[in-house]
Amino acid sequence: MSAIHPRTARLLGSLSLAAAVVGAGNPEAHRPAVDHRPTEGWFGRATPAVPAGSPTLGHSAPIRTVAHSGQCIALTFDDGPHPIYTPQLLYILRRHRVRATFFLTGIQCEKYPTIVRRIADEGHELGNHGYLHARLDQMAASAIAEDIRRADQVILRISGIWPRYFRPAGGVLTPSVLQAAEHSGHPIAMWSVDPRDWVVGRDATAITAVVKDTVGPGRIVLFHDGGGNQPRMLEALDNLLDFLKNQGYQFVTLSEE
Ligand SMILES: [Zn+2]
Predict the structure, then answer these.
(1) Which residue in 18, 152, 198, 231 is a FRET match for 237, CA 20 to 30 A apart?
(2) Is 7 a member of any domain?
(3) Which CATH number fits the domain that encloses residue 143?
(4) Distance of CA 121 to CAs 35, 115, 159, 204, 213, Å?
(5) CA of 46 to the centre of ligand 1 (A)
(6) 239 CA distance to ligand 1 centroid (A)?
(7) Catalytic residue selected from 35, 59, 78, 133
(8) What domain count does the chain have?
(9) What digits encode the pLDDT tens for the residues 129-167?
C-alpha cells in the first residue's frame, strides 16, 4: 500500500501551494484548447470489459452506486481538466449549488493546475483517472499501477489531496486493472448511468433523455468534461440539474458520508 496519510497529504499540499504561488501568472487560459488524448470513444464504447456482477477475482468490487439513504445521486466528470469546458462546467455546478466528482488525468492536471485547485476549492471531489488515459487492456498490472501512482502524485502535488477513487480509462476492468488499483490503494468507481455524452454529434436531447430514463436513487452518472462533444453535455446538464432537483434529488460526491 502506498497511500499517504491525509495529514501528510495536507502538509504536502501546503508546500505545493507555496510552489504554486511562485508559479503564479502561468497563462493557462491562453493555451490552445487542442486535446488529442483518447477518450472512452477511442475504445469504441464506455462499457466495462467485465460486466456488472462478474467475479472480481478476490479484489473488492468496483462501486456502481453510492450508498445513501434518500434520493441522492452522484455526478461524475471524466478526462479533465479541460481549459475551456471545465470552467464552464464549474460555473453551471456553482449556479445550481451542486457538487460532483471529477476523474482527472495526470497529464491534464499538469497542463492546467489552476483549474485542478479551483475544482477542489469549490467543494468537488477529485478522483484518479490515470496519468495518460492509456490503453489499460494492453498493459501489465505493474505498468497500470505506475500510471495510477503518477497521477496520484500529480494530483497530490497540485491540490494537496490524495484522490480516493480510481476510475480506469475506457471503463476497462481486466484482472490487471483490478490488481493495480488494489495495489495502489484505490477502490474503483464505475457508473450506473451512461448517456454516452462523448459521442461527437450526439445532441443534448439524446443525452438528457438517457439520464432521465435511467436515473434512480444512488446512481452514479458518467459525463465527460474532457474529450469531445462537451458543449452538448453542458447544454444537457444545465437542463438536467433543474429536472433532477424538481424530482427531489440531492447531489453527493462519491466519498460523501
Ligand atoms: Zn476517460
Answers:
(1) 152
(2) no
(3) 3.20.20.370
(4) 25, 10, 9, 29, 32
(5) 9
(6) 24
(7) 78
(8) 1
(9) 999 999 999 999 999 999 999 999 999 999 999 999 999
43 lies in some domain: no
Percentage of the residues of the chain whose pLDDT score is greater than 90? 73
Within-domain flag for 167: yes
197 in active site:
no
Q: Residues 34, 38, 43, CA angle at the centre, nearest 5°?
A: 150
Q: Is residue 2 part of a domain?
A: no
- Total residue count of the chain as it appears in this document: 257
Q: Is 30 a catalytic residue?
A: no
pLDDT for the residue 139: 97
Please give the mean pLDDT across all residues of the chain: 83
